Amino acid sequence: MLYRLEGIVIRSMDYGENNKIINVLTNANGKVGILIRGAKKARSRHASLAQPFTYAEFTFFRTSGLGTLNHGEILASNHLLREQLELTAYASYAAELTDRAMQEEDTSSFLFEQLKAYLSGLVEGKDPQIVSHLYEMRVLDMSGYAPVLDHCVECGGEETPFRISAAAGGVLCRRCGHKDPQGIVLSEAAYKLLRLFVRMDLRRLGSIQVKPETKQELKKVMRMLMDLHIGIPLKSRGFLDQLDKYNL
C-alpha cells in the first residue's frame, strides 16, 4: 500500500553500506519505520530526509513492518537543531523519549503536533528547559500519568504548601504530606507553573521567563515523575545532565 504522510524523523540508523532506516512520528499513523535506499551516498536526493528532526512529507510503500521510501518533500529541515549543541541535546531528548515511549500501534496525532511545536519552539529561541518540561507532561498525560494538582489526592483538601508525590499521583496537602516523605514541597511559583504545564498546549506557548531557582525545582519534580511513571533509561538525558554541569 502507498502512504503519503507528514512526519518527523525521531531516529536515523545506518543499514548496510548505503542505506538508512528512519523512525518517523507521523501525523496519522503513529510511529513508522521507513527504509531509505542510497541515503548514505554523497549525491543521494533523499539524504536530507534521513536527518534527525526533519519535518517532511513522506511517500512510501508498506504492506507490513518496514516501509520503503518512494518520495519525500522537506517541510522544515530544522537544521539549527543539528548545529547548536544545546539545541541538539534537547531535540535528541524529545526524539528519543518519543521513540521509546510510543508503541508502533499508538496513533496520537496530538503528540505529533506537540513534538512539532516543541522543535519549532527550540528553533524560535524559547527556553529549552521549559519547552522540554511541557513536552514531558504531554508524554505523561498520553501515558495516563498526568499528576493531579488542583487538590490533595488523599483528602481533596487545598491546604498549602502542597507536596507533590509521584507515588500518589499528584499533590498532598499540608495535613497529608507526611504520607510520602519522598515527595517534594512546592514553592508557589513552581506549583503555578506545574498547573500550567498540565493543561498547556505547546502550540499556544508564548514567551515565558522563569527564575533559575524555580527551573531547578521544576527539573527535580519532572525528573521524579518521569523516573517513576515512564522509567525508560535514555542516553540523551545523560547528555543533557553533562551539558548542565558544563554550563554551571
TrEMBL record:
The keyword Membrane does not apply. InterPro entries: ARFGAP/RecO, DNA_rep/recomb_RecO_N, NA-bd_OB-fold, RecO, RecO_C. It holds the Pfam family RecO_C. GO terms for cellular component: bacterial nucleoid. Keywords: DNA damage, DNA recombination, DNA repair. Gene3D superfamilies: Nucleic acid-binding proteins, Recombination protein O, C-terminal domain. Residues 1-77 form the DNA replication/recombination mediator RecO N-terminal domain. GO terms for biological process: DNA recombination; double-strand break repair. Belongs to the RecO family. Involved in DNA repair and RecF pathway recombination. PANTHER family: DNA REPAIR PROTEIN RECO. This is DNA repair protein RecO.
